Amino acid sequence: MAQYSAELDEVFLALADPTRRAVIHQLGRGPASVGDLAGKATMTLPSFMKHVRMLESTGLIRTAKVGRVRTCKLNQERLTVVEDWLTQQRRVWEECTDRLEQFVTASEKGNPT
User: Fold this and answer.
1) Do 55 and 14 form a contact (C-beta atoms < 8 A)?
2) Nearest partner of 56 among 35, 41, 70, judged by Cα
């Protein structure tokens, strides 16, 4: 997973902010205009646009402008780097708990390994 380290750091940094997580959550329901997304945020539009640019630069969202309306869309493929990392971590912890269970079971039978 070391080859994904920079990518993973970048995505986690983007997801570290609650405003950006809220945008990702809302876009999980479908595309939305920046205006609609910003309407739910408690900040000015220029401040909100910094969050949009961060999400776009990390590849978590894509934007397209038609006329005066910029629409954002979630790039679900980019979230796979997080999903892959979590899957790997889950596997490591399951192996640890499996070994612990074997140890406890063997200890209860008076046969520690």
Assistant:
1) yes
2) 70
Sheet holding 32-33: strands in order across?
Answer: 32-33, 69-74, 61-66
What are the pLDDT digits (tens) for 41-57? 889 999 999 999 999 99
For every residue of 34-53, DSSP letters joined together read HHHHHHTSSS-HHHHHHHHH
Measured CA to CA, the distance from residue 91 to residue 18 in angstroms comes to: 28
Q: Is the pTM of this model over 0.85?
A: no
d(CA 34, CA 65) in angstroms, rounded, equals 10
Helix, coil or strand: residue 96: helix
